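Notebook entry, structure prediction.
Reason for the run: the old model in the group folder had no record of what sequence produced it. Starting over properly, with the input documented here first.
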Amino acid sequence: MWLRSEIKSEETKIRILDKKINKIEKEIELAEVEWSYITQAKNIELMNNKFLKLEPIPIVDLENYKGKLFLVSKNEN
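New structure, fully documented this time:
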């Protein structure tokens, strides 16, 4: 009798843990889908245009700068 109740108790714990694991797996899957959508190039561009308004960095020929010092970025106050 005692052993049977212990087994039922442990089986209940296992079922509860299985439900928690399934919930976490679904949350991870949803997060992966959202990340995949957000990181698509078109969506990154849309978010940039809406929130950051960054401009493309011009491509420069680094050979022209060989041996010269130049400012890469400037801290604006």
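Summary: The chain has one domain: 2-65.
The old model has been moved to the deprecated folder.
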